[in-house]
Design brief:
single chain, alpha+beta, Phosphorylase Kinase, domain 1, D-amino Acid Aminotransferase, Chain A, domain 1, 2 domains, seven-stranded antiparallel β-sheet, five-stranded antiparallel β-sheet, binds uridine-5'-diphosphate
């Protein structure tokens, strides 16, 4: 499959069209941003880790009955995926308090929840991805009622699969962000990526952070954290 032209460049990925209208190639960069693009940097090797880890997890999820955009890994950094129209909602699932949840509600990080939570942000950089509820999403015609129900059902199922998978690697899945897309026939599939950029991973024994919070919070050891989590995944294959 050949790249024909770059159709999109985001903060961490480029997307190229191909000879096949229904397929695009995603190319993962080492560039990292945080706080809606305010903080910029690079994390050496991140593109390859995120690409390969995301592909591995998407294939695991497919086996568990979650449809995804994944088609084929082309190289360390490049993957062939189905062309979708992204539903402009960021879906966040949380198992433990952290990040904006802890800040918003004035609680400390690290409090485990009895049940996972779900929240939506309206994917809109100009507005800073504001938090919205499903009624707002319907009012703004971002998705239909049926699509929102499907997205919720898939997201909680994904949480169960990933939580168990990472626990076996001695990793706590604290929270994560998902994006879904529509295929031409209207089917909803998991899209974007699942990686240390989009998940919080804490070591089960030490609670050491193995994710992008090390970059966001200038904690150091950023590259090593990406390598560590990727190493655990590979050791488990
Ligand atoms: N997240 C993401 N992209 C975003 C916002 C959040 O991938 O634009 C992920 C983040 O890595 C974390 C989870 O979603 O795993 C919850 O993030 P939170 O709402 O706590 O926001 P943050 O503290 O990162 O601003």
């Amino acid at each position: 499959m050949n790249k024909t032209e770059m159709i999109y460049e985001g903060k961490a990925k480029k997307v190229f069209s191909t000879d096949d209208d229904s397929l695009v190639i995603v190319s993962y960069k080492d560039d990292a941003t945080a706080f809606n693009g305010l903080k910029k940097g690079t994390i050496a090797g991140k593109g390859a880790v995120n690409n390969r880890m995301s592909n591995m997890l998407m294939q695991l999820l497919e086996k568990e009955g979650i449809p995804t955009h994944f088609v084929k890994e082309l190289s360390d950094r490049e993957t062939l995926v189905k062309r979708v129209k992204i539903v402009p909602l960021e879906v966040i699932i949380r198992n433990v308090s952290a990040g904006s949840f802890a800040k918003r509600y004035g609680v400390e990080e690290g409090i485990p929840f009895d049940e996972p939570t779900i929240e939506f942000s309206y994917k809109n950089d100009e507005l800073g991805d504001p938090l919205i509820n499903s009624y707002h999403a319907l009012a703004l015609k971002l998705a239909t009622k049926e699509e929102i129900e499907t997205i919720k059902k898939y997201s909680f199922k994904i949480n169960e699969v990933l939580k168990a998978y990472f626990l076996a690697l001695n990793v706590r899945l604290i929270d994560f962000k998902l994006e879904f897309g529509r295929l031409p026939d209207g089917k909803i599939v998991l899209a974007d990526e699942i990686s240390p950029d989009t998940c919080r991973f804490w070591d089960k024994n030490t609670n050491e952070k193995l994710d992008k919070d090390r970059f966001r919070r200038d904690m150091g050891g950023v590259e090593d954290a990406y390598k560590e989590i990727f190493g655990r995944i590979n050791a488990n294959k």
